[in-house]
Amino acid sequence: MTTPIRSRRRRLAFLALGVLAMGTATACNDFLQAENPGAVEVQDVSNPAYVGLIANGPIFGFQQAWTDMTYWNAQFTDELFNRAVFVEEGQIDRRELFSDMTYINAFIYAPMQRARYLGEDGARRLKSLLGDTATRDLRVARALAYEGYSYIALGETMCTTPINVGRPKTSPEMFADAITRFQEAITIAQAARTFVSAQTPVNNNALLATDSVLNFARVGAARAALNRNDRAQASTFASAVPATFDFRAYYSDNTTGQRNRVFERLTLGSNAFMLNTPFLAMAGDPRVPRAAAPAARANTPLAPSSYSTFSNTVAGADFAPIMSVRLASGLEARYIVAEAAGPTQATLAFVNERRAAGLQAEVSLTGDALMAELRDQRSRDFYLDGHRLGDLRRYRQFYNVDLFPKGPYPGSTSGQVYNETITCWPLPINEINGNPNVGG
């Protein structure tokens, strides 16, 4: 974070404003509905009466940051093609990235760093306020899990990431730090589950809540481990997740801070479409729907399968102001297990199951061809939900498979090309100038 953001008052303002803006939106299932007790003054931040506010801060912070990162990373990769609305958006599409670009800090770096801090600070304050019970308090586990996901998001997106004006960390270091947070979250969530199970009568909603946070952390840990190419650890975490598990981020149109950026840019603005992307050829797969009319919106994505507005029809349905987006799931855990296992018969069976979901015929593949099909199915199942940049970087680094757009930039009349050397976002200029450990 930059030097100005380090002030105590600024941090507390982020925390209070975050939860005030959240309203009824949550990033969990209904039984994890967050309270909204209002803003807290600086001098009262250590008052136990405000535990609910502190616990809710990481939820809002991450949801807000995640939707921006999802949209801009979709344009950065091959999920969306820009309609040349603004200069910097075309540069992002071509991966012509510079530290002084305004979009990097405004939409990518600062929001997710803020989300990371809200998780870190929230967990620390909750531990202090809750005392001995913090080791079995689900609110602490949830704050740690959101912090872990913020580390994943930054690790998958940024080339390097300083933490609290420290030295820039590499992506593998960020993923290792994420796993540490997830492991602590898992331990606390398991303790919470044991405590709830021992009560008479058992509160089933509370039990479901512990399972939700527990599996949220397990999927995150598996994702981080896979990004480190630790397939054994990734599989261990992922194998413990039920196939039916689903964890979501929630959005509304009450304020711009609660609005999902994909809805805003595609449904309200039609600012990007599928032309010149590999997803254009996936017509007929209900997981990757697109608008057919009017002409101005042709091939603009409609709600894919991670969104609550998904209709599971080829015709598709639009995004909506009030909707949720799948953030972690048993489906993702199964993909992680399959990628970690390689081209086995179980992987083939899973691929054919996913092909059926896309109205595709079964295949009989082995070896590299099977893994390529697994990657293709993964791209369809997780279209526009924040997985693609991390996936493309992992494929390139560990499998020597480069799926980033390359060559001449479609539609250019001046010889523009994709910058094939760029596969991650550089630090913004304010971090470079404000952090003595970066060395600008």
In short:
This protein is mainly alpha-helical.
Task: Write a structural description.
The protein is mainly α and 440 residues long. 51% of the residues lie in helices and 5% in strands. The strands form three sheets. A two-stranded antiparallel sheet has the order 1-5. Strands 2-3 form a two-stranded antiparallel sheet. Strands 4-6 form a two-stranded antiparallel sheet. The radius of gyration is 21 Å and the shape is globular. Residues 1-37 have low confidence and may be disordered.
By DSSP (H or I, 4+ residues per run), the number of helices equals 14
Compute the gyration radius: what is it?
21 Å
Q: Estimate the mean pLDDT confidence.
A: 91
Strand content: under 5%
Q: Work out the number of β strands.
A: 6
Order of helices and strands: HHEHHHEEHHHEHEEHHHHH
The coarse silhouette is globular
For the biggest β-sheet, the strand order reads 1-5
- Secondary structure category: mainly alpha
Low-confidence segments, given as residue ranges, are: 1-37
> Could you say what the CATH topology is called?
Serine Threonine Protein Phosphatase 5, Tetratricopeptide repeat
CATH-derived architecture = Alpha Horseshoe
First-residue to last-residue Cα separation:
15 Å
